[in-house]
Design a protein that fits this description.
single chain; alpha/beta; Rossmann fold; nine-stranded mixed beta sheet; 14 helices; binds 2-acetamido-2-deoxy-beta-D-glucopyranose
Length: 414
């Protein structure tokens, strides 16, 4: 712990990342518009989520246009739209079942120049669908393919993305699952694993449109390639926060703060599987069966390395019905406050594995412990993840679901 107090290791971000950077800016501003983020692996039977999406349009049978641009090709994307899988419905069947009128864009990474242009008949047909849509829904897969399909190679908006932005300002909902949610941030990041982001000290590869998000700077047979990741331009419908998905199933709460530092984004949203966060202007509400992490770096201090170090992150975890005010950053839960604390918090020995983070924080807030200390299973170095109580954190529970409001999280090497 001595290391933790050394000024040599603790410098503000402006020093840590060099010229032009400021401490991750935070503000009371929030973006206008309606964004519906699905954390991936949504069950076809999760009527609460799909009904909320339909209801959010204010129409009984809204038009939803599906972009399959995270698929590897137009043909494969159209298959996911039209053809049921053994375990899951096609998008067409799914959205029809929940009362939408679905359509699909003939746009993918292998035809983007034609499909995104307003001077081709294919592009014009796509643009007409966007013009008529109440919801524009982006599929799951790989978000670098979304960016390849929707941006020009120089990073400017394609003609059709310009139309999506106009529809968004007019009140259309932009929605997406998994990669389709991750692309909503100003920068989108991906690939790799929490330990790799820690090991490489939040040094994500800065990728261009048309590249993948894999960090190939040490070649494609390297640890960096398998465990680190990259970031590139995203759509920016969510302005102040980075979006990650599958967060508990894949232990991604550990990579989110590293990606926040790498992209200079002050807040992080990590949506769990079969869960959604509906952002309507300043107010966000959680739907579904798992939870959403909200990570706030406004009081955090990032170290310089060699491994990723941060202290003083504020971490909240919200479940169905909970609300987050994006202007004030206030967490609002209708669940009863936890007032009795018994037992000890769980200390994970493999903290970046699925559900270990959430187990750590929920056992902490019900226990009489002041901290939960988790470790990576990897050694040399080991990543230490400490959740601890400070002043003012609150926790609520009902029917086995928890709300945690402003726990502190530190990550450092031992
Ligand atoms: C449906 O939407 C309206 C406003 O658009 C909202 O007041 C209501 O709570 C929503 N109902 C459900 C079940 O989501
Ligand atoms: C095509 O898109 C560009 C912007 O990308 C816009 O300036 C132009 O007006 C559009 N043309 C038509 C016919 O919509
Ligand atoms: C906390 O709970 C543990 C296990 O129930 C118990 O052994 C310990 O005495 C408690 N500590 C305090 C400070 O209440």
């Amino acid at each position: 712990m001595h290391k933790m107090n050394s000024n040599a290791l603790f410098v503000v971000l402006v020093v840590a990342v060099g010229v032009g950077a400021v401490a991750l800016p935070h503000s009371r501003q929030s973006s206008p518009g309606k964004v519906f983020l699905f954390g991936g692996a949504t069950e076809d039977t999760s009527a609460n989520i799909y009904d909320a999406l339909r209801n959010a349009t204010g129409k009984p049978s809204p038009n939803i246009v599906v972009a399959i641009t995270a698929a590897s090709s137009l043909a494969i994307g159209l298959e996911a739209y039209y053809i049921d899988d053994p375990g899951s419905w096609s998008y067409e069947r799914l959205f029809t079942f929940y009362g939408f009128q679905p359509s699909v864009l003939q746009l993918a990474r292998d035809n983007w120049e034609e499909g995104a242009s307003n001077s081709t008949s294919l592009g014009q047909a796509n643009i007409r669908l966007v013009e008529a849509a109440d919801v524009i829904f982006f599929n799951g897969g790989d978000q670098s393919r979304h960016s390849r399909s929707w941006f020009n190679t120089d990073g400017s908006d394609s003609d059709i993305l310009g139309v999506v932005r106009r529809r968004f300002l007019d009140g259309a909902i932009v929605a997406g699952t998994s990669a389709g949610a991750a692309i909503m941030s100003k920068r989108t990041y991906g690939e790799g694993y929490s330990y790799g982001y820690f090991y490489f000290n939040a040094d994500l590869k800065e990728c261009d449109i048309g590249e993948t998000l894999q960090d190939d700077r040490d070649g494609t047979n390297s640890f960096r390639y398998s465990d680190n990741g990259g970031h590139m331009q995203g759509f920016g419908f969510v302005q102040e926060a980075l979006v990650d998905t599958h967060v508990d199933a894949r232990g991604r709460f550990g990579r989110l703060p590293a990606a926040m530092r790498s992209t200079l984004t002050p807040y992080g949203i990590g949506v769990g599987e079969d869960t959604a966060l509906y952002i309507n202007g300043e107010e966000a509400v959680v739907l579904g069966n798992d939870g959403v992490w909200w990570v706030d770096s406004s009081e955090a201090q990032f170290g310089i390395g060699p491994y990723f170090t941060v202290t003083g992150l504020l971490v909240s975890y919200l479940t169905e019905g909970d609300r987050l005010n994006l202007a004030t950053k206030e967490v609002i839960s209708t669940k009863p406050l936890i007032t009795t604390n018994e037992g000890v918090a769980y200390d994970s020995r493999d903290v970046f594995t699925g559900r270990e983070g959430i187990r750590s924080i929920t056992t902490l807030v019900t226990s009489n412990s002041t901290r939960s200390t988790g470790r990576s299973k990897e050694r040399n170095p080991t990543a230490n993840v400490v959740f601890h109580r400070g002043q003012g954190e609150l926790a609520y529970t009902m029917d086995g679901k928890f709300t945690v409001d402003k726990l502190h999280m530190d990550i450092y090497s031992i």
